[in-house]
Amino acid sequence: MRASKKNMKSLINLLFPSSPREEVEAAGARVLDRLRGQFPEAFQAFQFPPDLTAKAESLSPGEQLFLRAIYLTPGGYGLDVFSKAEELAQKRLKRGTYYVATDHLLDRGLISKELTTHNGRVQARFALTEFGQRVLAEAVPAERAEQEAIENFGYFA
Predict the structure, then answer these.
(1) In angstroms, what CA-CA distances link 48 with 3, 12, 44, 67, 125?
(2) More confident site: 143 or 100
(3) Quick check: helix, strand or coil at residue 17?
């Protein structure tokens, strides 16, 4: 008796269900954070210099949101930054967006991360780099210009 492709595919999907992309990225980010904490020298040895040519318009909306949240919570821990981002967005955010956005911002050299012990737990404390401050300063006028265009012309209303 020969199994059909359809039956095999349904069996594989049953045995190995797929997870949403955000969930997979968040889990990967947690593993990377844990490895960075345990083996900082190994990560520094393989770190490439940040791309210092990034521009505000090349940031995703989520990255801009978390960059702004980090700016507004100087020296804030991860949960403080996440809460500020939810406040700025005026909606609930998924935790995975926090991990993905902060990882991208770290890779691009826009923020720095310091692992500290807080309330008996190792937690990340974020700060904007000088480069991150320049990119954020660039993003604010661009956002204002976009908002003025919307208000003046009503194309996007």
Answers:
(1) 49, 39, 9, 21, 22
(2) 100
(3) coil
What is the C-alpha separation between 144 and 125, in angstroms, rounded? 29
Q: Which structural domains are found in the chain, ordered by start?
A: 19-150 (1.10.10.10)
119 is written with which tokens?
A: 């309330």
Q: How far apart are CA 85 and CA 98, in angstroms?
A: 9
Per the listing, tokens 């949101």 go with 65
Crossing angle of the two packed helices 61-72 and 95-107, in degrees rounded to 10? 90
- pLDDT tens for residues 56-71? 557 788 888 888 899 9
**Residue 123, strand partner residues:** 116
Helix (H) / strand (E) element for 112: namely strand 111-118
pTM for the whole structure: 0.56
Contacts of 140 (CB under 8 A, 6+ apart): none
Q: Where are the alpha helices (DSSP H) in the chain?
A: 5-15, 21-38, 40-45, 61-72, 78-89, 95-107, 130-153
Work out whether the CA dihedral 16, 22, 24, 30 comes out positive or negative.
negative
40-66: average pLDDT: 69
Helix 95-107 and helix 78-89, axial crossing angle in degrees, nearest 10: 110
